[in-house]
Amino acid sequence: MRPNRREVLWTIANRYVNTDQQKTTGLTLVFLHGIGAHKETWTPVIQCLVLEIAASSSPLYVNEIWAMDCVQHGDSGLLNEASLGDTFDCADYARDLTNFLLHYLPEDTSPARRISTNLFRLPESVTDRRKIHRFSNRTVVGVGHSVGACSLINPAVEYPALLSSLVLVESMTIPEYVKYIDGHRKNEAMCLRRRWLWDSIEDATRDIHKSGYYRSWDPKCLQQFLKYAIIRTSDGKFRLKTHPYFESLMMYERLMVYEAWELLDKINPSITMHWVWGGKSERAGGPVIQITYRRKGNCSNDVHPNVGHLLPQEIPDLLGMDIFRFLCSRYCERGSRL
């Protein structure tokens, strides 16, 4: 990713690999977080999913999992902070995922093969093949929350060979005709008011535990936030890795969420779509929009009536089981054994 000034922006990802692979062509899951979160916010969901797979007799094979930080957030945001500008187009999140899948996701999924910390750009011949003929030994499933889910739509439309299925958790895909009730401006103000610097980690922990925003979070997710979203500064203070200013910038640009809605019915019918909704979500449009898939066929959903927008943070275990059940329904081989 190169802005106009030609600085390089880095995307940091966590990679989890199955060291007991029984198939070389098992699933590869790619997780994208929402605004204000980070790649480690998915860890409790992933842990639940992995435990469900291990305990089940269902023949579901997952060889590799990637959880990515947006360039504005988490370790990516910290590394890129000096190069980030005063505007951000959320479509860049979709572009960066597309570049990762086309140009950087390694060909080999073998656990015996160690990959470098910095992924090298693949030959154009590999990229060209992926655009049309899928991966040679991968079946990729995209899992996203909020704007992370929205960011799966563009690559699914432009390069349908890249993605086999989409799991869209509280996706920020909104029809423009409900724009007038989109209350996102208050969220931008909330971001800008967010405290991000403390004298000690104890102060940070107390402050975050007192905040109403985090009150509904699962303790495992709150622990992940305290461990991975905060870093010690050179002068001994503690700060959020994601500066509230850069978090809020992602909310100012709203065109992508409306464009993604218009693209939903253009997603190739071969790509399975599974939606997960929170019944108490304040997402613009509410239940009427949530049940309108736009693309008929090859779609399913789960609804949690007592949960809001932050499903990965509030109900990671239930969400992990939702994903497990969907993957089993889509990919388990009947009559075979795990």
UniProtKB/TrEMBL annotation:
Source organism superkingdom: Eukaryota
InterPro entries: AB_hydrolase_1, AB_hydrolase_fold, AB_hydrolase_sf
Gene3D superfamilies the record matches: alpha/beta hydrolase
Any single Gene Ontology cellular-component annotation: membrane
Residue span(s) of domain AB hydrolase-1: 29-314
UniProt-listed Pfam families: Abhydrolase_6
Signal peptide: none
UniProt name for this protein: Peroxisomal membrane protein LPX1
Lineage: Eukaryota, Fungi, Dikarya, Basidiomycota, Agaricomycotina
Name of the gene encoding the protein in the UniProt record: LPX1_1
